[in-house]
Amino acid sequence: xxxxxxxxxLAVAMTIPSVSGAQSxxxxxxxxxxxxxxxxxxxxxxxxxxxxARLPLAxxxxxxxxxxxxxxxxxxxxxxxxxxxxxxxxxxxxxxxxQADEVKYIDSLLSEYARAFRSRLSFVExxxxxxxxxxxxxxxxxxxxxxASRFSQRAVILQTALQRIEAAQGGETxxxxxxxxxxxxxxxxxxxxxxxxxxxxxxGGAAGLLQQELNKSDPTIAQLEKPLSDASRTLATTGNGxxxxxxxxxxxxxxxxxxxxxxxxxxxxxxxxIPLLGLGVAAVLLAVFKWFQFSRxxxxxETDLQTVLKHIQEEKQDLALKHARNxxxxxxxxxxxxxQHVDEKKEYIEEII
Length: 353
Prior knowledge:
The protein has 13 helices and five strands. By secondary structure, it is α+β, with helices and mostly antiparallel strands. Among the domains are: 2-63; 173-259, no CATH class; 262-295; 302-352, no CATH class.
């Protein structure tokens, strides 16, 4: 506002020389004084306004500076909290990784134990635990299950193994199936004592030791003598009695089943066995004849060879030839041929012989 008044005053002063003669210099001075007084008053009022506004503005600046300080303190606190949270987050990640590794290790232990459990089962026990083992394998391969659910479903095999160990102490009996000598499936009772399994059918017709045969899903009842079969039935049905033990664990039955008489082997061969038998007899007769023939062939002895060499060294080739021809058989002919060409080179003599 003051600047405007000063500019006005200067404009008026610059227009003084061009003022017409109607105005006097005194009037101009009076107007300028009035304008100056008015400008001074306005300046004073403006200064008063500035003084009045300066204190509130100073207060506002002070309050804003205080807010900035508080915001800086809050920012530092938030940064420290963020750093602490980051440290805790890294610790949680490390703990989560450690627990994930433990879960994988426990999972691998369960898989290995399941394989070991399956391998230790007797062939008569496999049908009892087949459903359980399939369920455990299915849980291990299910990617949709959580780690806790997968563990709970697979850990059942641990409890089952403990129950099996408790039941196996002193032997146990359970329901089972087996094939009789006609190949028919029989239902009955199985007595398992260690590695020995004894079976007795419900119909009362088959009883004895159980053995596993190739290409058969169910075990087979081994054929025993009647006293042993009766003892097996008593043990399987009552849980008490004499135990029929096979120290070979079924190998003796397998070997006895493989034994066949000569007639059975020829019968399995069919018609083709007749010419084969004829060729076999002819081969044996020819072998005997050739053995007899070769046994009559005389070989040159060490004495014969020394005698021939002695005559050759004494330049008595006739005597050496005569002695060589007196040796019967092929050996004498070869030796005589060598004497006849004794003057030739060694390679030539070898080729002639």
